[in-house]
Amino acid sequence: MARPTLHTDLCDIFGIEYPICLAGMGGINFTPPELVAAVSEAGGLGVFGATGDEPEELRKRIRRVRELTDKPFGVDLLLPVVTGSLESDGVQVQPEAIRATLKREYPRHSEFVESLIGEFGLDEHRTQRKLGGGGIALARKQVEVILEEKVPVFAAALGDPAWMVPDARDAGTKVMGLVGNVRNAARQVKAGVDVVVAQGTEAGGHTGRIATMPLVPQIVEAVKPLPVVAAGGIATGRGVAAALALGAQGVWLGTAFLTATESQIFGSQQRAVLDGRSEDFVISRSYTGKTARQHRNPIVQAWENAGLDPLPMPLQGMLMSDLSASAEKAGRHDLMFTPAGQASGLLDESRPAADIMASLVDEAVSVLDDLHSRISIS
User: Fold this and answer.
1) In 17, 184, 298, 303, which residue has its Cα 20 to 30 A from 73's Cα atom?
2) In total, how many domains does the chain have?
């Protein structure tokens, strides 16, 4: 049986069959090479998040994806907006110095996190996660690797990619810029990106405050003729069809693929996505310091009740790193950061990524065909 046709200009830009992109969710558990390759093999664009990767770790992940597929794929980074005080002249400070700085400058926050480790019985599993200063120095090294490896697509999930766009063009790498409002979309256009991703507040992970339905058409008008990809609250073929009707040339899906059998998130995290209702996924700054939609677990609730403003990114992530590492060691995966969107309410089973892709395409084509039979226009 012939594969259905669902083709937009985005397919030509990226060299893909279907205008469906795997959102570049951070951490290898969220977007492992097997999932990235499976989406690309099924006709979409597999993308992995690599913000925390050291350069050579990133290179290995890129090469592993290439072992699994010869189709286009991408890498997503959170480009730093500011570097903060933990990086000086591109030299990363030692983890011990970072922890000492946090305790000295933010004693109440440090004490609160210590209290959570005790409250949730993590003392005997206490462990430390590797910390780095991060910032623009690491981002530049990561981008160097991406361009050296000639990755087909780079996605800037946060920050201004203007400094790397000329080099990306020279390397043949297309650049996507993720935004949550028209103002930031204009900045991405000025930066020279090839594609703008308009992400509504329904999305999981770092997100803004404007919903997908009003956001996408605003950005389509603001950046034309650049193509726009819609994100946030899309997990079915009906959602894909709706995004195309709003003027998008494609979709950027994360939560739907957290349920894939190739995903390597922990079982309790996947169950939270499959069993959760849309209202169980809330916006909080508790884990990263930036507004992020995530499962409202006991840690998120504790921050809500504490009355402490989370620290700015990346300090909050550093502050929470040892708690998260201790929770993982203890097997308390329910206490770990689980970024997912309101589309969770649409999901109830785990399937291979290829099946998810096929369902998205089949339903989108069916819905678009059905519109012609249900609606009379003249």
Assistant:
1) 184
2) 2
